[in-house]
UniProtKB/TrEMBL annotation:
This is BRCA1 associated ATM activator 1. Keywords: Cytoplasm. It comes from Apteryx owenii (Little spotted kiwi). It is found in: Cytoplasm. Belongs to the BRAT1 family.
Amino acid sequence: MSSLEAWFVARARRRLAMTRECRLLLPRVCAALADPRQPGSDDTCLEKLLDWFGDLSEAEPTLKLVQDNPCVPELITSVLALPEPSPSILSFTLRLAGLLAASENCFQHLQQEKLLVRLFGKDGPLNSAMWEDASVRSGWVEGVRRMMHHQPALHFLCSGGGIDVIFTLQGDPSLFVASAASRLLVHMLTFSVESEMTKPLSAKDCDWPVCAQMIIKHIEDSLQSSSVSRIKQSLKLLTSLFGSCRAPWTEVLWLGVAKQVESFLTEESVQAQHMLADLLLNMARSPVFCDTEGSFWALVTSALEHLTPVQAGPLAVGILRLHECPQDVRIQALTVLLQPMDCILRAASQPLEYAGLLDESVTDPATVESLLSSKSSCAGLLCQTLGHLEELLSLIRLPVDLPYTSLLRSLMTILQFCNGLLIPASPLGSKISQILIGCFRVQRSALDVLAVLSERKGCDTPVESLFDILLAYLESPNTSHTVLKKSFQATSKWLVCLPEMSCFNSQWQTKKILQDVFLVLQKRLCSPSWEVRDSSLEFLTILIKGLRDQDEFRQTLLSSEVPRLTEDLLEDPESYVRASAVTAAGHLTFITCFASESPVIGNQYNKENTVEKLQEILSTDPESFPRRAAISIFTRWLRQSHTGLLQNTEQFVSRAIQIAESDLDWEVRLGGLELVEVFFVQTLCRLGRPKCPYAPFSPEFTSSVRQNESLQIFCRVKLFGFLFCSLCDCDRPVGQKACDILLALRSSFYPSNALKDFHETEDLPAEHGVAWLQRTLRQGSLAQNILTGSGNEVDFQDPESMLLALGTINLEELHDDLNKSSDHVEKSPQSLLQDILATVGTVEENEADCY
């Protein structure tokens, strides 16, 4: 360990070490917890107390901790002596003992005191009435897991019969306990093999350690038993093991159970097929098995053939996400995944009008057809398949090629079935159509996949047909709000991708589609449902972001009623709609600002009027959402140098931050600070400063003329007053942001080697008030003192004062204070111990902290 690492370790240990105050409180806490007359302590407090003991055991040897604080083992002894301890206290004691016993020295110490046998042995809670409580069983399992870090603990459990208890707890009625028991067995098996084996295992020479041998025999016996529950428990254990352990010895273990596991694929009485899919997928992700030739992948192939489409779907998509997989298995998995989509495409027309998705099937097509023609399974199978397709299509790099065009046609067919737009020619298609019509679940899933598919190249389908379907969903009064929102999302994705499509380059067709879209949007913006109006405005904003550089889009938008309706919705009675209208109107200005001379829009949309309206919303709207949207739009305008809209940037910024700093909503104030940050960076860049505030000074900027000019600008817009007052904001994110900006500002005016570092504020010129500012900031009452006029106030519009303040105030110290959690005092161990004492009634005054 290097000297620097040693210093950090020592520092961490000092920070975690028990303080004198805690050492005095701990005996009273332990006595109170073991006192049956006291009310039970809060479970949350007990969890935090355990966490604290865990921190202490990292800071110093656990044995020393126990010896220096005899009240801790006395607590365990006292709880064991109680005839009927509280289940929560007993569970806490079991976990605490396990935590302490994780150290081998402390384990031996507790063994000598006979405490571990009395807690985890046959004479402990195992054979008492307390064992009926699930929290006690959970505490027992957790305690064993915590101590399982050395050989003596492993041998103690195996020789004392504890491992049989864990086998039994695998089938515990409490799922939490059963799951914990299974994870514990995995941990014990892994620990036993990796700590006790001296040579690599092989199929011919598998001399397992004692504990590992007991667990493996239990797995094999369970798999061969007639008990379905035991079989499932062992399959879960194997799934967890192969998911967490990638060691070569796992292959030796697998070879011993492979034949039995494979038999469950065709054994209907067991009904564990869905668990086999999880097991095989975890194995396929392991390098131990993915490189195996033959047997394992043959089993995967068999599983894909024998599992039902619903069971095989998760396995298929998991295999398709793997980059290391035999090509024939990948093709088979893709076939399983696409089979329901192929069936939909074939059911839509007889004979098949377009090419199908698949040349051949893995499973019997009649099985898929039967599921799709059943009302109870059709929607579920399609939603699962569509969810898996969305998962695959969302990957940056697909390890498999998908037939995008046929897949798109299949999606369009599903949407037509759901909306009654398609009259199928086949009996199967008619049946599926009857089931799917009006099915919102399938509509939402299909639209999600359609949106993701827009980003993939190679969809050479007639786009007009696709937009006909999407427009039908946007127009239909029967479209639910959630489906409408998904329809908007899919439409916006495809519209944005439209200019890039090789199969679609007709300007007339583009304009026709956009006109149809805006006609529908006009109607939706007038909907009586606020959710629909809100979604429509969000849709408009997305379109403007993606298409504002396209001439056809700008002309079509500005010739429609959409801009006027958007402006009208700035006065909508619903605050969410007003907020979305603010965002949409703000983005509209990026188009109208550059189209002011166009005869298309005439006088219907005045850009200056928009600025005034948004400023009015920022200052007067009674709800916070529109005000947040307004300050966010102002920042976006400034960031994108929207100078055509902002005639006087200084005046605009000054007014915006004066409104924002007095807003009651902290997110609006934070938005004001983000506006300030953009303004100061742009101002410095304009005057010759590099874009990065921490970059080396340029010769142009280091001149006092340029520095003074920027300082004067910042003072004129009242930037410093807002920043320094925000340091004492009651909402910590605002203070943190203000401090970050001030640090960046300081680095822009003071090179690191010339930064003034004043330690004595008495020497500062009194007329500047910097000493007062520094003292007031420490007290956290700047805003109050400024309002009352007390003290020697700072002139925040005086450049010389502000330059001196930036170089004088210890902003780093303020930054550290602001980054501390607001409840760091209440979260201290001392506060926790006081809370526990207050809860059990041993503190005269209520000292409990609320956190």
